[in-house]
Amino acid sequence: MTNHNQEHSTTLFADWMQKVIPVLSVLLGGAALWYTWYMYNDNMNTLDFPWYGWIRVACIGILGIFCVTAALLLLLSKPLGWNVLKLGLSIIPFMLFSGLVIVGIRGIYYLFNNSSALFERFEQFIMDPSNLVIPIIVVALLLLGKLNQTKSK
């Protein structure tokens, strides 16, 4: 009796997830594409935007394209949609790693040139409202973890 209840609840959970994941994927993809457009406009209006600023914008744009494509494939019940969604969400660790490398390079640069500018930059980074990407990244990582759990069952 217990085994039957577990199978029934797993089936309901799988059906529920199959209906919600495309919606979450399109919301995440739309938010990523909106953020990419927002940052692109801000970057084009700045005269001295450094080269490494484009890495985050490009990664989030690619993430948005993959998530929207995955949502369409999942709505059409294509199994390829899960792989495309995982591919899109796997861009996030690359983006975080490249950000850490860039912060390290910039920290060393500012440490040798002028140490007071390092602390001013760190304060600017924390107080910048465009850093709303972090909650989006957390949601995407939680979604990726949930996808791995459903695939392993």
TrEMBL record:
Keywords: Membrane, Transmembrane, Transmembrane helix. The chain crosses the membrane at residues 20-40, 52-75, 87-112, 132-148. It comes from the Bacteria. This is DUF3995 domain-containing protein.
